[in-house]
Structures
1.
Amino acid sequence: MAYNIVTIAGSLRKDSFSLKIANALAKLAPASLKLEVVTPAGISFFNQDLEGAPPADWLAFREELQKSHGVLFVTPEYNRAIPGVLKNAIDVASRPYGKSSFNGKPVGIISNSPGPLGGVSAAKTLQNILPGIAGPIMQQPEMYLNAVGDAFDADGNLIKDSLKPVLQAYVDAFAAHVAKHHG
């Protein structure tokens, strides 16, 4: 049986590094995982006034998460934090209070940046937000990918050889993390 994993690429940019990394992970995933890559595109702004009759896009996103066996976040860093669209998606999915769609789902966090710090502040932001609304967060290996600007070709294929074993090790560790919590 393959565990279904919602892999959220936290950027709206069509050529985002987060989306390319998420797609590369989907190709590298072991047979025990099926990564479905999504973005926050199309998720309307969270407004608590709408909780009584949530918009269809909220319900669809929540249902997709509820049907999954785990969640993998791949996020860029914007101004030392996660992008606002990713925070909005988390807010939508974690409501209504006490009924988070992330509840009990094993979680992985990968941050990335074309710069030298690898989006570490964005990963730390997620580590602060997710406890209490999500399942167990994989602690090791931590993944802060730096210098990803030259990692992909024009078609979005991973071409940076030094990055392949790093991503492979991470997705294999995540597969074990998911299996441990569903075994």
2.
Amino acid sequence: MFYHFIRPVARFIVWLLNGHLHVNHKERIPDGNYILAAPHRTWWEPILFALAASPKEFMFMAKIELFKNPILRFILKHAHAFPVDRDHPGPSALKTPIKGLRNGNYSLIIFPSGTRHSSEMKGGTIAIAKLSNKPIVPVVYQGPLTFTGLLKRQPLEVCFGEPFMVDRKIKLTHENEAMLDNKLKKAWDKIDHEQDPNFHYLPR
């Protein structure tokens, strides 16, 4: 119920602050549940991705520190967020999203690099895709990287790529995970180039 309330509120705020959210290749999104996997470039990306892929509802991981504030904890929990300890992720970091994807309740937004401005892929995304048997949909954000740029109404571009499955028979060895991580990175590069050949992400 809260998710249905907060989504139009978030859409209005984005429109009020910027007014230029452009969604590209939404037709590539498959039916059913899926995993939106993106490189982490700004803190507002989860909001834009959830709006761009509406009416699908999403769950997402949030660092456990955010849940210490009671007001923020209420908002996060009712927006389908679940806490993850980045330094010591427990079994719930996999079990919670897998259960949500399997039960047909929600899709998942995930940032395989874990934190903003990092290109190092953390474990989890490939395992979740394999164990849930749900497709990975690569997605990228192109646009302002600062709140000032957002307020200057620079265009916000959300671009979806072609979905792909992780074979349930594949063993998640270090080599196989590295191969699939590289496949995801190449998908992001392809979408970036497709949307804007001159785009280059420069972390601050």
3.
Amino acid sequence: MRALQGVSLVGAVLLTGVSAGLYYGFAVAVMPGLRRAADRTFVEGMQRINAAILNGWFLLVFVGSLVLILAAGALRLWGGGGTGTLPWIAAAALLYLAVLVITMGFNVPLNDALDAGGLPRDPERLAELRERFEGAWNRWNAVRTVCNTAAFGCLAWALVRHGNGS
């Protein structure tokens, strides 16, 4: 049972770390790069990114993180062993749930609105479309990046505690 607990915890750490890295990459590279682009390039680039990210690999990380966090917690709770890791796993679960709520409640609706706006020929319409999207999306991405990174940290610490027999 201890090995299964460890495997689920390692998986949760890995997938949560990948998702934290993805959001961090957007925060420090993708969005700053697009910030320098013209409105048409920005809107079209984000529309293409939004379409490309909807794939099985992203879904595996996005949903798989929570599944493995919950599995690690359940195995720890009901599988015996010390409970020293349980508070850290629970904190990670809450933080990762916040990531899901932020993504589905804020970032995805902003993505959908940007996509629904199409790629207008009118420069003023393009600028308006970008203006409604960019600032809000970046703010919510920053919040989910912090939450996801904190969840990753909690899981990493739980893994250390698991290795120490806690």
